[in-house]
Amino acid sequence: MEFQTGGFQNLGNWLARLIRLDLTVFDDVKDEASATVPALAVVLIASLLAGLGSWLWWIFEIDLPDIPGADEKNFEAFWKTFILGGIFMAALWLLWVYISAMILSRAFGAGADMNRMIRTMGLAFAPMAISFLIVISVLAVPFGAFAVATTLLLSNAAIQATTDAEPRQVILANLTGFLVFAVILGILANVAQIHETGGLAPGIFFFDLNL
Predict the structure, then answer these.
(1) Torsion region of 110: left, alpha or beta (phi above 0 gives left; psi -120 to 50 gives alpha)
(2) Is 144 within 8 Å of 128 (Cβ atoms)?
(3) Would you call 198 helix, strand, or coil by DSSP?
(4) How many Å from the N-terminal Cα to the C-terminal Cα in the chain?
(5) Fewest CB atoms less than 10 Å from the CB: which of 69, 89, 154, 159?
């Protein structure tokens, strides 16, 4: 218990350094075993905040008073985008990490330790929490895009801190993992749509961009 408590006690400091763009935080976190659970917690909380933002956007922007079963639709949106969407995003993030690690180790023969990458990339996922601000309708796309772009860039730095791979190899591995992450979330946005708006995905991924 004390082992993991130490990681959570340091989490605030790690996040503060990340906000200041002190990327050396990844060098400190990568070998800190107690950072594993806090890093996973960051991913889950950021994912749920993204889902909460898209659900609140739904509540404020979609007017359903005259539609039969409006309460059921609101609950469906809550369940799909906040609960299931947040869980799916966190799970797909793990797939992102795994794919990046496999490409680095098997395609490029570089050192790629999953535990290290989970710690650093988990911390780098924190900006995804900014997706909560898509609740501000007029700024939904800018906030959503900023959250995704910042997470992607920080994830690249996070991977670089854990491997001896060349920068171009890190970029390729990270982009491939992210592409799978984003494509699947995009597909989920079109699965079991709620009132032709979005589906099983949180944050900016909630929106069906084909509409």
Answers:
(1) beta
(2) no
(3) strand
(4) 49
(5) 69
Does the structure show a pLDDT above 90 at 206? no
Total number of residues shown for the chain: 211
Summarize pLDDT for 23-34 with one digit per residue, the tens.
999 999 999 999
Cα distance between residue 127 and residue 19, in whole Å: 9
Task: Give CA separation, 118 vs 32, 90, 110, 124, 179, in Å.
Answer: 11, 12, 17, 10, 18
Spatial distance between the Cα atoms of 128 and 137, rounded to a whole number of angstroms = 17
Identity of residue 194: I
**Cα distances (Å, whole numbers) of residue 202 to 15, 67, 83, 84, 137:** 22, 24, 9, 9, 15
Beta bridge partners of 124: none
Rounded to whole angstroms, the Cα distance separating 49 from 171 reads: 27
What type of residue is 78? F
Pull the structure tokens for residue 96.
């992102």
Q: List 207's β-bridge partners, or say none.
A: 198
Rounded Cα distance, 86 and 43, in Å: 9
> Would you state the pLDDT for residue 68?
55
* Phi, psi torsion values for 198, nearest 5 degrees: -170, 180
Domain boundaries of the chain, sorted by first residue = 2-206
